């Protein structure tokens, strides 16, 4: 959608409509980023976000409910073109908040 908007800049009617559609479709994604940056958590039921949750293994081989995060292994697919330059900063912000909420330890994290 973003690339189409860039290509259609000469047609003002089309560009206004495309911008409105783009803003509406982008809202859930921006809400996910906002939630992650401010709380260190996110909900991604359709596996579309560029950050992935990994369950952390507990001390006795048990899986805990604690999560660690990693950047996607598919950056060309999951990171929107207009966010490529700031995606690492978003990741650092959200993971820092998550770490602080967990008590600040990185024990057992690779």
Question: Which structural traits does this protein have?
Answer:
15% strand; 2 strands; single chain; 4 helices; alpha+beta; 110 residues; two-stranded antiparallel sheet
Written overview of the protein:
- With 110 residues, the chain is of the alpha+beta class.
- It is built from four helices and two strands; from the N terminus they run ααββαα.
- It has a two-stranded antiparallel sheet with strand order 1-2.
- The mean pLDDT is 82.
What's a quick, concise take on this entry?
With 110 residues, the protein is an alpha+beta fold. It has four helices and two strands. β1 and β2 (63-71) form a beta hairpin.
What secondary-structure arrangement, pairings included, does this model have?
Layout: H1 2-7, H2 12-39, E1 51-57, E2 63-71, H3 75-78, H4 87-102
Antiparallel strand pairs: 1-2
Helix pairs in contact: 2-4
Structural class: alpha+beta
* SSE pattern: HHEEHH
**Helix content range:** 40-55%
Q: What is the strand arrangement across the widest sheet?
A: 1-2
The total count of helices amounts to 4
Low-pLDDT runs: none
How is the main sheet built? 2 strands, antiparallel
Distance between the termini: 36 Å
The average pLDDT score comes to: 82
Number of strands: 2
Shape: elongated
**Range of strand content:** 5-15%
